């Protein structure tokens, strides 16, 4: 039944004996291995030395608290993001070294320092990783952290499911790391175009890693989407009608509707590809009667909505940050809601702009060209509304606002070049050039800028202390410099005709621009250092920079500012009642900012569980076994997953009650600390805290 695979296979170890033939003498792989082993070893040693294992297990690994799950999602996303930067740097450095067909190569490479196969693996893993295990977890993490507090809920609708989503994402990230040393990664680009990804063209295990990593993480994303949609629709505090719901929660709703409807398409497309590779069906093989255009269509029917899946939450961040630092309500909130849902809707009708040149003819191309440009209307509405929010506002350029304003600028740049690419006539010329690469990075960068803005903005809420402001600004400027120096030359190189994914640069005239890009990469690297320093310094100075009110920026507007920093595990001592869109601003205006509830009541909370972690572990084992075609192990892992789920179904004791007296004790402690510190801050209007600088112009 199974396909004949080239190379060794045996029933116990599957394809693992193949490892003996792989090229472990490559110094890059050994360097990466050393880095990962050293990093991982340090973490493990530190955990053991400081005896943190118990704490790690109780407070983090088995938690179902949406805030902690959100933090862990973000941590995975950040680590992967920085790994992705590393790969981007390697691509850039390689191309800057490989100018002209005669240029020499080192370390066994034809040109530059990477063999063509290795280079292909690197841009494939860069793209896959950035989208699947960096951007998506970072955004889902922020939604987890903020949405329940913003709508006045105690937790997600399904806390247990939430933890499953996290551990499936962690499982995918783990498999990405495993693929670095055990075998290889796909070399067929992150879109996995057939026939390149068919077994005949990619006989190794790389494509299989790529497939299973995406499958496992997208199950996680799909269950997460169910959860967030149910939470938003069912768990809002009394008084919070949909029209009063803060914008970030609205974009979270739009995003997850996209996720719930589009990820299954990807799952099916990859499943069909899996059948082609594993048992020899012919869904996508032209020679066997299949149709590879079908793959391309299915992939982008997911791929394009996915782009909006990542951009909508970023729009949500901007819609929270800009009003706070303009000290004005968001301009035309209702239009923003319509625009958000409009973008989510249109995102479904534009997928074909990814292959205008594949010969579907002028009528089809025109349809998709117009559909694509339609997205510009709601997006334009958003940009104008942010600008009108700032107009006549008391703008404070605090660090989150710096990130946010720059993000809007990037959106305008990326949007403009997107409109260009949406014109088929232009697309025929620019397709497959680095102009396209510059465009989509422009779009991803606006997300990253909005995201770092959001991290800085909500950090004091989540952790109870401010991030170091000077290093934060340094991080911002270095990151911005890197973005300008890498991507402006890249746009230009696209116009000069440089195509993407090149092993060597055909035209020496491109070289000066490539050197500028390398300089940009150096700035990016420095920015990562600044970020890590910022986190370290902020942790060190956390006592000094402690937040003394519930509203660290003093002009917060939505409901999450109506609870402590950090929020207690039950979020709100008493479920808040909502009076207005911009509830916290409304309370401030009415002098109702006291956090003391009218009375205390028992609170019902979910219990920790180790089962999500166990499920994630079995999913990882399954992925590994499926990649290496170790059938007994794959079967064992599937059985284990099913048994774990059955065990869960028989668990009756899954929640507990926090007695009112306990809630009162916790609240009193919080309030006492806040009171005394707020008192102190009255005497010395805390200059250290960035939030206190309120402009008076
Ligand atoms: C900010 C630093 C980044 C730099 C310097 C960078 C650089 C690059 C480079 C040089 C390429 C290969 C271009 C080529 O085809 O020749 C690339 C491809 C790609 N990047 Fe990035 N990137 C960065 C961040 C990101 C982020 C944040 C994302 C997504 C969230 C992303 C997603 C992608 C994708 C999807 C590809 C296409 C991969 C393929 O060709 O299969 N990148 N990037
Ligand atoms: Cu698209």
How is this structure best summarized?
This protein is an all-alpha fold and 697 residues long.
Structure description:
Helix 7 (247-279) packs parallel to helix 9. The N and C termini lie far apart (75 Å). The relative contact order is 0.10. A two-stranded antiparallel ribbon has the order 1-2. The protein is 64% helix and 1% strand. It is mostly helical. It is built from 20 helices and two strands. Residues 681-697 have low confidence and may be disordered. Residues 304, 307, 350, 353-354 line the site of copper (II) ion.
Labels describing this entry:
binds protoporphyrin IX containing FE; binds copper (II) ion; globular; two-stranded antiparallel sheet; disordered C terminus; 20 helices; mainly alpha; 697 residues
């Amino acid at each position: 039944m199974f396909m004949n695979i080239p190379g060794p296979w045996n029933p116990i170890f599957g394809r693992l004996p193949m490892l003996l033939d792989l090229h472990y003498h490559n110094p890059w792989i050994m360097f990466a291995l050393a880095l990962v082993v050293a990093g991982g070893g340090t973490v493990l040693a530190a955990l053991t030395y400081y005896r943190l294992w118990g704490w790690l297990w109780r407070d983090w690994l088995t938690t179902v608290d949406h805030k902690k799950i959100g933090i862990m999602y973000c941590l995975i996303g950040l680590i992967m993001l920085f790994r992705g930067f590393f790969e981007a740097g390697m691509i850039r450095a390689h191309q800057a070294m490989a100018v002209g067909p005669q240029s020499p190569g080192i370390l066994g490479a034809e040109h530059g320092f990477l063999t063509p196969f290795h280079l292909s693996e690197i841009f494939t893993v860069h793209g896959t990783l950035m989208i699947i295990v960096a951007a998506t977890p970072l955004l889902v993490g922020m939604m987890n952290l903020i949405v329940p507090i913003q709508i006045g809920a105690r937790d997600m609708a399904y806390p247990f499911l939430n933890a499953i989503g996290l551990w499936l994402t962690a499982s995918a990230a783990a498999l990405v790391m495993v693929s670095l040393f055990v075998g290889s990664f796909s070399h067929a680009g992150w879109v996995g175009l057939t026939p390149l990804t068919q077994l005949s063209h990619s006989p190794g295990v790389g494509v299989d890693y790529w497939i299973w990593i995406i499958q496992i993480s997208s199950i996680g994303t799909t269950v997460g989407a169910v959860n967030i949609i149910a939470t938003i629709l069912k768990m809002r505090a009394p008084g919070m009608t949909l029209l009063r719901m803060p914008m970030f929660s609205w974009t979270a709703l739009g995003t997850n509707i996209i996720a719930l409807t589009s990820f299954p398409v990807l799952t099916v497309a990859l499943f069909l590809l899996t059948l082609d590779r594993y048992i020899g069906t012919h869904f996508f093989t032209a020679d066997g009667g299949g149709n590879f255009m079908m793959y391309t269509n299915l992939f982008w029917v997911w791929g394009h909505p996915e782009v909006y899946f990542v951009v909508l939450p970023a729009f949500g961040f901007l819609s929270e940050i800009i009003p706070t630092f303009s000290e004005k309500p968001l301009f035309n909130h209702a239009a923003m809601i319509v625009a958000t849902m409009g973008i989510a809707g249109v995102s479904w009708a534009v997928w074909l702009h990814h292959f205008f040149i594949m010969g579907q003819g002028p009528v089809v191309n025109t349809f998709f060209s117009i559909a694509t440009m339609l997205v510009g209307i709601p997006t334009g509405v958003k940009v104008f509304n942010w600008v009108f929010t700032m107009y006549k506002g008391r703008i404070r350029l605090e660090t989150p606002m710096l990130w946010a304003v720059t993000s809007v600028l990037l959106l305008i740049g990326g949007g403009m070049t997107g409109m260009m690419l949406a014109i088929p006539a232009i697309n025929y010329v620019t397709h497959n050039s680095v102009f396209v690469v510059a465009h989509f990075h422009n779009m991803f960068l606006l997300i990253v800028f909005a995201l770092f803005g959001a991290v800085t903005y909500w950090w004091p809420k989540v952790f109870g202390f401010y991030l170091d402001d000077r290093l934060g600004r340094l991080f911002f400027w270095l990151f911005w410099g890197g973005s300008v120096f890498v991507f402006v030359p890249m746009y230009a190189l696209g116009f000069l005709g440089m195509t993407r994914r090149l092993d060597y640069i055909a035209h020496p005239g491109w070289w000066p621009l490539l050197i500028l890009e390398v300089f940009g990469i150096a700035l990016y690297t420095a920015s990562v250092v600044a970020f890590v320093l910022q986190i370290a310094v902020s942790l060190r100075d956390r006592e000094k920079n402690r937040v003394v009110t519930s509203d660290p920026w003093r002009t917060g507007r939505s409901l999450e500012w109506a609870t402590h920093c950090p929020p207690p595990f039950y979020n709100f001592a008493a479920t808040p009642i909502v009076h207005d869109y911009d509830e916290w601003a409304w309370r401030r205006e009415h002098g109702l900012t006291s956090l003391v509830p009218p009375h205390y009541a028992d609170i019902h909370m979910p219990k920790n569980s180790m089962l999500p972690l166990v499920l994630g572990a079995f999913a990882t084992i399954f992925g590994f076994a499926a990649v290496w075609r170790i059938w007994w192990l794959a079967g064992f892992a599937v059985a284990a997953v099913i048994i774990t789920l059955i065990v869960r179904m028989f668990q009756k004791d899954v929640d507990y009650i926090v007695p009112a007296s306990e809630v009162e004790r916790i609240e009193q402690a919080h309030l006492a600390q806040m009171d005394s510190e707020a008192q102190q801050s009255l005497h010395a209007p805390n200059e250290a805290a960035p939030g206190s600088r309120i402009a008076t112009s």
